[in-house]
Design goal:
The protein has about 180 residues and is α/β, with parallel strands linked by helices. α4 links the parallel β4 and β5. The longest helix is centred in the last third of the chain and has 17 residues. The protein starts with a helix and ends with a strand. The structure holds S-adenosylmethionine. The site of S-adenosylmethionine has 17 residues, from loops.
Length: about 180
């Protein structure tokens, strides 16, 4: 929750969350968030979020099922949030192009994602385990570098913090986390 609160810092206005899941970020939304649109393909995830949505102080609407194809008009949002989702969307480049399209100029992408580690030994294990991970974890990848993907999609990374989550060495392939805020020029 500490990381979720940190990545939500600065969210304001009309916000889109892609990969809403069970709504674990709801309690971290700042008061400046005026409305929250959610994209979530899983009926189970959406149902699990019901109680949290009911208790939320901000209106939350499910506006889509796929981050690769957003229904919103260009420049419709002030900010977009993703947590532990860019690892799973099949065509992440297309999803980030869509995020860029629906963000207003100056709007921000807030992301908290696990991904490719800087240590060669850990990265080697991530590459070895990536296929298996995809099969047992709903298409999740270990080798994506979310901040770099955001840069490649035309975002300017303003804030970047990266670290391993606490845990034994064997958990490192799953535990390298990036917290970033990137703006759409
Ligand atoms: C590991 S879960 C993270 C859920 C939530 N963001 C969190 O931090 O707890 C990955 C989420 O991505 C969603 N997802 C998978 N494919 C997606 C897609 N194409 N577009 C949007 N969300 C997707 C899954 O349904 C799931 O809710």
């Amino acid at each position: 929750m500490r990381l979720r609160r940190q990545v939500c810092e600065g969210l304001s206005g009309r916000v889109l969350e892609i990969g809403f899941g069970s709504g674990l970020n709801i309690s971290a939304y700042p008061a400046a968030v005026a409305s929250l649109d959610a994209v979530e393909p899983s009926e189970v995830g959406w149902a699990l979020s019901a109680e949290r949505r009911a208790a939320a102080s901000v209106p939350i609407a499910r506006v889509g099922l796929d981050g690769q194809r957003l229904a919103a008009a260009d420049a419709a949002y002030d900010a977009v949030l993703t947590t532990f989702t860019l690892c799973t969307i099949p065509d992440v480049e297309t999803a980030l192009a869509e995020v860029r399209r629906v963000l207003r100029p100056g709007g921000s992408l807030h992301l908290l994602e696990h991904g490719l580690a800087p240590d060669p030994k850990v990265a080697t294990w991530q590459r070895r385990l990536d296929g298996l991970q995809g099969r047992i974890a709903a298409g999740c990848h270990l080798v994506r570098d979310a901040p770099e993907l955001a840069r490649a999609a035309g975002f300017e990374v303003q804030r970047l913090e990266q670290a391993y989550l606490p845990g034994p060495g064997i958990s490192k392939p799953w535990g390298f986390v990036s917290l970033a805020v990137a703006t759409r020029p």
